[in-house]
Fold this sequence. Notes:
Elements: H1 6-11, H2 19-30, H3 33-40, H4 56-68, H5 73-82, H6 84-90, H7 102-114, H8 117-131, E1 153-155, E2 161-163
Antiparallel strand pairs: 1-2
Helix pairs in contact: 4-7, 5-6, 5-7
Amino acid sequence: MKQQTFSDVEYSNRRGKTRRERFLDSMEELLPWEKWIEMIRPYYYRNTRGRKPKAIEVMLRMYLLQRWYHLSAEGIEEAVSDSYAMRRFLGINFLDEQTPDASTLLRFRHLLENHHMDEQIAEEEAEAIRKAGFVIHEGLITDAVVVRVPKNLKKSPAGKRTET
């Protein structure tokens, strides 16, 4: 069992789980994590130079979150930082480590694609979900941005817009 964080303690007092938490808990139970990790291990970064690599399981989980929620690499990096459910699914404790960055996730995705493991993972995922009797209705996380616009724009005689 992993050590609880302050966020875990804070969230433990809620009335129930969110739809996202229930979905991620289901995926936790349904999918063949160990099989996929062992499939990826021979091709994964060997840690001979550079930064210490992220755990295969963390990268795999982040890759799947990106697919399930149709987010860019930058989008899933931000979503994980913002979502307790996603962070818990990845097993990341911000006291000890950071979310894998977008370029790390992109390299991981390319590794899966180059060895056609992405196709195998998708097929086995669909099969596990079908066998469990579930159907996935894909979702989309959208992001809103507030943009300041002038309150009143008026055309000048020269045809240019001016703020009044």
